[in-house]
Design a protein that fits this description.
Length: 621
């Protein structure tokens, strides 16, 4: 404690960022302060105001670091960057870098396109969104295609350009075929303007025009034509139904509120675009150490807008701390004025109350689901224990698999299910070291031996206090082992466990002709399981997960080997360029076939690098 007291004494009275670390040196919390000395000291003072999660965090703090900044704004920016980098367990953690979908209209082209994108760039195009749910966006795009004959191709079409043959969409009246020169730029532009008006909520003129055309067609006994206009009106109604008007202005606004049941927090955000609620998103705030609503909302704002592509003009909140500082930070990120407002009455306040009500409902549903899922998983594990005649339900299940392709790069993987759910943090990967070729039995023997020898060694180190329990990776043994194979694999596992004097039940998953589990083998007996039973669903999930994890690992090793053996030999192509090439073309073969124009269009590939790539593969031939 002397070192900690000395550190507290040496804290400067300046703005900055502090990083709390545990005994393993892991960063568990990052915070910013206007005055570092005052803020950090608060954590170590005996205070009844500290909540249980703050107390739990403080118990885990073994040391801390701090970084002095010139201003509180610099501290805020640095705090956001460090949270994003380290993802500390006691900070509010939201989904990382979530990019919401936009509807993009390329109005800078002679014949604009309308499509969905997740990247909002300053490229002269018009964007609508962001939308928090992707499926309604695609449905809206499909409805727009039914109403307006716009192109869906990616061709670069110029006015008075070389005409092309019209595609099928033209012949079924879904496109006006600008590629074939069947519509002028001006006429096509009028159609695009109607699309923009519809997405902007100015659809009354379009509806009037379609109704007039429908009535004229009906009067002329052109019933098929009238039915077409009727269907377009129905499609427009569906688009309108997706967007509920809540105000008369047309600003981009977000409404944020939170709800707590004194144990957990839920944040809810409503997205309002052009005066309409176009969707919402909620977040359960895991490991939140704050108890003050204003602090929770402020930290939510930092994490959410630190990772989203779009920041609206106005953000409405029930309350918040550091509002002026957050406004300054958001304004610098957006490049335009951003306001955070706390409405005291009226329509905005009523909407915030609705947001809080939704947050409350979401948290209650979330907890009910957790409770229901927990009861369901316990019942399934009890059924599995009864089926195998185990003394206790298998709280922790480990499953193993071997993957290789034609005997090359054999790898082993271990996945873990606890309480019937995957525990990704305990997954392990093994490169096969002692086995050459495709020998699954010997490969399995190697990884099981390594896994449990590591575990026994860790247990000794923990007992002798040479290793903290928090640093252990293998010392927690399973209650049941599942092998991705039949009796042969089970016998290998039992042999390894017997040699190490470890007693753990081992089951094998017996496959059918389609490589799906049809039964379990246990104690040299095959146990049939009903295909639609809850036990079979759990076993299938485990089998699919261990197989997926093994294949993913094998592919990553194979890609690294290919990347090293071929692309590293090309002059002027470094690691960044290799990654960009594989990202765009997907394989070495596609890179080999790429033209100079395709290569030069790849990010970070200049003329010299493109020429070098072509020369390399040309010489290779």
């Amino acid at each position: 404690m002397f070192d900690l007291e000395y550190q507290l004494k040496m804290l400067p009275e300046k703005p900055g960022v502090y990083l709390m670390k545990n005994s393993l040196g892991e960063i568990i919390y990052v915070g910013k302060a206007k005055i570092l000395k005052n803020r950090v000291k608060q954590y170590f003072q005996n205070s009844k105001n500290h909540g249980s999660k703050v107390k739990a965090m403080v118990k885990n703090i073994e040391e801390f670091e701090y970084i002095i900044t010139d201003s509180e704004m610099e501290a805020l920016i640095l705090e956001c960057n460090l949270i994003k980098k380290y993802r500390p367990r006691y900070n509010i953690l939201l989904k990382d870098d979530k990019h919401y979908p936009f509807i993009k209209i390329t109005i800078n082209e002679d014949f604009p396109r309308v499509f969905v994108t997740r990247i909002r760039a300053k490229d002269g195009s018009k964007y609508f969104g962001p939308y928090p749910e992707v499926s309604p966006v695609y449905e809206t795009i499909e409805l727009i295609k039914k109403v307006f004959p716009i192109r869906t191709c990616r061709l670069s079409i110029k006015e008075n350009g070389e005409p092309l043959k019209a595609c099928l969409n033209y012949h079924i009246n879904l496109c006006a075929a600008p590629c074939a020169g069947y519509i002028s730029k001006e006429k096509y532009g009028e159609t695009i303007k109607q699309v923009i008006d519809l997405l902007s909520g100015k659809e009354s003129e379009i509806i009037s025009e379609l109704k007039e055309k429908m009535n004229d067609a009906a009067e002329n006994l052109e019933f098929e034509k009238a039915a077409t206009f009727r269907d377009k009106l129905i499609a427009i109604d569906k688009i309108r139904e997706r967007q509920k008007i809540i105000s008369s202005n047309f600003e981009n606004e977000d409404f944020i509120n939170v709800y707590s049941d004194e144990e957990d927090w839920c944040a809810q955000i409503f997205f309002v675009r052009s005066g309409k609620v176009i969707g919402r998103e909620h977040f359960i705030l895991d490991n939140n150490i704050f108890t003050d609503k204003a602090e929770v909302i402020s930290n939510f704002i930092k994490d959410f807008y630190g990772g989203t592509a779009f920041i609206p003009k106005n953000i409405y909140v029930a309350e918040a701390s550091d509002i002026e500082l957050l406004e300054e930070w958001l304004t610098s990120k957006k490049g335009a004025r951003v306001s955070i407002k706390v409405p005291q009455k009226g329509e905005k306040k009523r909407l915030l109350e609705l947001v809080e009500s939704n947050a409350k409902n979401t948290l209650e549903q979330f907890k009910l689901k957790i409770k229901t899922d927990k009861e369901l998983q316990e019942n399934i594990l009890n059924e599995l224990a009864n089926l195998l005649q185990l003394q206790e339900q298998p709280y922790r299940i480990e499953a193993y698999d071997i993957s290789n392709i034609q005997g090359v790069d054999s790898v082993g993987t271990m996945i873990v299910f606890e309480k019937g759910k995957p525990k990704n943090s305990d997954y392990r990967r093994f490169k096969i070291k002692s086995v050459k070729g495709a020998n699954d039995y010997d490969s399995m023997r190697e990884i099981l031996t390594r896994r449990f020898e590591h575990g026994l060694q860790e247990i000794k180190e923990i007992q002798s206090r040479e290793l903290l329990l928090t640093g252990a990776k293998f010392s927690v043994f399973p209650d049941l082992i599942l092998m991705d194979g039949g009796k042969g694999q089970v016998n290998v596992a039992l042999e390894v466990l017997q040699n190490l004097n470890i007693n753990i039940p081992v089951c094998g998953m017996v496959k059918d002709d389609k490589h799906k589990t049809r039964a379990l083998v246990y104690n040299n007996k095959e146990i049939e399981i009903k295909t639609n039973s809850r036990i079979m669903n759990l076993i299938t999930r485990i089998q699919d997960e261990v197989h997926r994890f093994a294949i993913t690992y094998h592919r990553s090793l194979r890609d690294k080997r290919i990347l090293h053996s071929v692309l590293e030999d090309i002059p002027d192509v470094g690691i960044k360029r290799r990654k960009e090439l594989l990202k765009k073309f997907g394989s070495i073969e596609n890179i080999r076939k790429a033209s100079y124009e395709e290569l030069i269009a790849t990010e970070s590939i200049n003329e010299k690098a493109a020429k070098s790539i072509i020369d390399f593969f040309h010489k290779e031939k």
